[in-house]
Amino acid sequence: MKAGLQFLASERVKQATVRNDWQPKLGDKFIRRPRIKAHPLRRVLGIPALFSAGYGNVGSSIYYALGIIVLVAMGATPIVLAVAGILFIFTALTYAEGTAMYPEAGGSASFARHGFNDSVGFISGWALMLSYIVTIAISAFVIPPYLGYFWPLLKESAAIGTAVSMGIIFFLMIINVIGVRETSFVNVTAAVFDLLVQLLIICLGFLVLFNFDFLVNNIKFYWPSWENLFLGVALAAIAYTGVETMSQMAEETKRPATRVPRALILMIITVLVLFSGVSTVGLSAMTPQELAGSWATDPVAGIAHAISMAITPQEMAATLSSGTEVVIVLTWIFTGLRDLLPVLVAVLAASILFIAANAGLMGISRLAFSLGRYKLIPPVLGRVHQRFKTPYISIIIFSAVALAILVPGFFAPRAFLELGALYAFGSLLSFVLAHASIMSLRIKNPDLPRPFRLRWNIRFRQRELPVTAILGLVGTAIVWLVVIFTQPYSRWVGFGWMAVGLVIYVIFRWRRKLYSNKIAAAQTSSTESQR
Question: Which residue of 59, 61, 69, 178 has the smallest Cβ count within 10 Å?
Answer without folding.
Answer: 178
